[in-house]
What does this fold into?
Amino acid sequence: MTTFQDVFGSRPEVYARAPGRVNLLGEHTDYNDGFVLPIAIPQSTRVAMRRSAGARSRVHAVAYDRTVEFAPGTDAPAGEDNPFARYVSGTLIEAAHEGFQVPALDILVASDVPIGVGLSSSAALEVAVLRALRELLELDLDDVRIAQVAQRAEIEHAGVRCGIMDQMASSLADTRSALFLDTRTLRRQLIPLPEGSSVLVMDSGVARSLATSGYNQRRAECEAAAAALGVPALRDVEYVSAVEQLGDETLRRRARHVVSENQRVLSAAAGCDARGFGTLMNASHASLRDDYEVSVPEVDRLVELLQQHPAVFGARMTGAGWGGACVALCQAGMQEDVARTVLPAYAASGGRGRALVPEFEDKEGR
Ligand code: GLA
It folds into this structure.
């Protein structure tokens, strides 16, 4: 694999990494000041960094085999040939807005977080860059502030009015316990997975083409619903019955999803066994499909196949939606068996999915 030395001629000063995440419960709740329950995935983004000898920053993305240059304090040129560069430059600009002196840098990025499937490859990149920067410049920057700076990079420079779940998960979660987070107060607690269970992530193979516009539209609908109900955010609506007073059918359904989804996260965080947790995941999927309308038929099919498997406690779409990944809670150690049964059945109905389990992908020669 290409190294920092191959690209920039000598060694970096620091290395850092940050994981992608999969959200187990609490979808489209974070920008409503609600509750989420993501967990880190084994795949991560690695960054090597040093101060540059020149006046411009350079970002090399191994996956694209491209180096992009830009002046410190400016956005890297947008372009498909190195989409990583724009996130990096945006993150550095937001770090500078925090009052840190950010010099010209040489940066190498390598990642095995799947891109564009709802596993937060961009949050992993932003957090990894900020971790490297913290070490390089000995910055007084804690993990929560890293998540906040990373979120601003995403909003200001990638144009997604996202909540803070992804960046908090990448900055604070690990792969063994889920991060129960109150996105209003940022109070949080690590919660172990239910006993005897493990997480399986599968990609539906459907590209998320409408995700940015659809996402921003859902957010606007939630704000309209909160205003109509006279609350600061949908988080403040405690009972699902309260949304029935909304006259607008679309807003009523959006609000019903958010209020019920918050309740599901709180139930899971209060403690339940794998079967109970799985039941909450299944209900979450139905709500995202029917009320929030962010699923697509292929994802529904994959989720259905997962839910039918005897070793699966529950399954749902994960991330913003409009395609991308699904997550299942299955019996510990059964991920590969489940994938081996579900993939051919999904293929038979025309789907082109894959199991995002690193060891499984290695074995299958991907
Ligand atoms: C994206 C956003 C998150 C969150 C999810 C939906 O991943 O970046 O902030 O809103 O969608 O739950």
Notes: The chain has eleven helices and eleven strands. The longest strand covers residues 35-51. Residues 23, 27-28, 30-31, 162-163, 165-166, 319-320 surround alpha-D-galactopyranose (CB under 6 Å).
